[in-house]
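Milestone 3.1: sequence recovery, worked example.
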């Protein structure tokens, strides 16, 4: 590992703090500009949430992670890092809404409501889509402005299940990283017609036999909608990213927790826990903005406005023939514990002795619950639910594992947006050389898009 701390007098040098997907992409883009870049992470690996743990020969992902081929730029970067070693994934979804199952769709499905209610829902969405835009105060308001009153009230249940917080208590800033940006609310046939109107297209989901149908203009290079690293699960991507960035001249410093950042004479001085320092001309902050606030300004205005959702990830090493034909299943019903269940062992082609592979199950929790305190006592229960939603079949396998993730989703509470703008102003007034990528963009392809714009605009000035 290259661990050389070098100062540069070049005004174009960059330090990126946070080596998750954001930091990796930031380093990739800046190295394309041939700028001197140092990428720092407090862990001894790159990838953050993408770094799979190794368990008895299986690389266990932290939940369901795939690459979406929705635009050529984001897909090309992932392909370049992975040196083309990808597995195309023909994703098979199921979603469960109010205990009703819908195959071929991952979002909540309100097209199967009783006739009268379903007509009402559709009418409300069409009306909402024709109204002028208004600023919502809460996520619940945003849902109502977007989908009308009925859907807004129906979304309380899945939102509460996913985050442990109802949408009336959540800031609208959460919308960008939510799973509720489109919904199924009518038949595929009617939906296809309605989607010709742009404001309805952005609200309605339909099933399609061609997964690239809606991305034909932006995704021209690769003939599949999703892909995944050929080896070692998502850790394959993390390890390849480290090798790629080092090869392209990025200075990668791992195991380097930061103690503080001070700004003086147009430069920021980063002090590490070990006492050594870096003084770059520019910083790209690739973690949560509340952490930047604390490290730079010493205040906690934003972290007090964030709800952390704890999650337990259950893993079962089971026989390949116990797994049904789904890539992932979202269960939005409050009656069950499982929120999302996926089959990375299958789409990542991980098979031990040609018989055993694994499934991964995300169960949001809360810190006071018995589930959080004693997750091992829930192995049988969760497996039973996985059978009942159709992910797997047969009896409980002998090999099980679980990981407690104290912070999975970080949900902004009411008042976050207003405070965020104030804090951003304070940061800019204090240190003008720190850029940050907003966390209200969540999916990998959107992160690439956001960083391209952020860094592109900055470098052109
Ligand atoms: C369960 C789950 C499933 C998902 N599935 C998908 C999917 O299928 N498709 C998709 O497009 N997106 C998916 N996403 C979203 C996407 O993967 C994430 O938004 C993205 O990986 C987050 O990257 P990040 O760099 O912002 O954060 P992180 O991965 O959290 O990385 C932050 C990094 O900062 C480092 N760090 C923390 N503190 C310090 C410090 N003081 N100094 C230095 N470094 C520090 C951490 O070690 C970490 O490496 C999923 C997200 C989750 C949680």
């Amino acid at each position: 590992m290259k661990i050389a701390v070098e100062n540069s007098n070049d005004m174009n040098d960059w330090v990126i703090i946070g080596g998750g997907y954001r930091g990796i992409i930031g380093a990739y883009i800046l190295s394309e500009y041939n700028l001197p870049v140092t990428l720092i992470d407090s862990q001894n690996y790159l990838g953050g949430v993408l770094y799979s743990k190794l368990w008895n020969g299986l690389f266990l992902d932290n939940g369901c992670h795939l690459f979406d081929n929705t635009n050529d730029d984001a897909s090309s970067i992932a392909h370049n890092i992975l040196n083309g070693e990808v597995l195309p994934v023909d994703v098979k979804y199921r979603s469960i809404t109010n205990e009703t199952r819908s195959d071929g769709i991952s979002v909540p499905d309100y097209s199967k409501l009783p006739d009268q209610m379903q007509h009402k829902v559709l009418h409300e969405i069409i009306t909402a889509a024709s109204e002028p835009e208004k600023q919502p105060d809460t996520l619940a308001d945003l849902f109502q402005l977007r989908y009308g009153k009925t859907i807004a009230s129906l979304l309380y249940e899945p939102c509460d299940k996913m985050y442990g917080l109802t949408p009336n208590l959540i800031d609208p800033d959460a919308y960008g990283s939510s799973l509720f940006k489109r919904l199924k609310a009518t038949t595929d046939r009617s939906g296809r017609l309605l989607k010709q109107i742009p404001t309805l297209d952005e609200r309605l989901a339909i099933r399609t036999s061609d997964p690239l149908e809606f991305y034909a203009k932006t995704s021209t290079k690769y003939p599949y909608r999703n892909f995944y690293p050929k080896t070692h699960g998502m850790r394959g991507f993390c390890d390849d990213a480290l090798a790629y960035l080092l090869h392209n001249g990025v200075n990668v410093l791992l195991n380097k927790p930061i103690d503080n950042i001070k700004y003086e004479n147009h430069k920021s001085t980063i002090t590490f826990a070990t006492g050594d320092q870096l003084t770059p001309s520019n910083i790209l902050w690739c973690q949560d903005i509340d952490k930047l606030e604390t490290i730079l300004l010493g205040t906690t205005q934003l972290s007090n406005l964030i709800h952390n959702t704890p999650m337990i990830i259950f893993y079962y090493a089971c026989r390949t023939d116990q797994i049904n034909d789904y890539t992932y299943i979202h269960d939005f019903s409050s009656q069950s514990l499982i929120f999302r269940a996926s089959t990375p062992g299958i789409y990542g082609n991980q098979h031990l002795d040609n018989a055993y592979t694994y499934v991964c199950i995300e169960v949001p929790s809360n810190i006071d619950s018995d589930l959080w305190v004693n997750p091992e006592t829930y192995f049988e229960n969760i497996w039973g639910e996985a059978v009942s939603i159709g992910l797997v079949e047969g009896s409980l396998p002998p090999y099980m594992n679980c990981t407690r993730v104290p912070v999975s989703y970080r949900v902004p509470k009411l008042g976050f947006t207003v405070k965020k703008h104030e804090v951003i102003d304070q940061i800019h007034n204090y240190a003008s050389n720190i850029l940050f990528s907003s966390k209200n963009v969540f999916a990998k392809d959107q992160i690439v898009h956001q960083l391209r714009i952020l860094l592109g605009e900055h470098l052109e000035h």
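The two ends are 34 Å apart (CA to CA). The chain has a mean pLDDT of 94.
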